Request: fold
Amino acid sequence: MDSKDYRRWRFVSRALSVVGGVVFLIGLFSEGSASRTALFWAGGAAFFVGVAVAVIMLKCPVCGDRLPAAWLKECPHCGADLRDI
Ligand SMILES: [Zn+2]
Reply:
């Protein structure tokens, strides 16, 4: 995986996790049971898809090993700096 692909999938994963997390919290704290339940589940699902994207798609651009999350500062396998790759 080259660094362009890495950045793209990292963005997708982070965006889904953040948006999903926000929608989940809105659902958690909003009034009205129907919209609340829908937001709750949609947000939760988007969050977990975001996490799954990181687990399935993200590989270190330096050593090619799988990365467990989209928020890592460095590769746990080869120690490559992932912040500005
Ligand atoms: Zn690595």
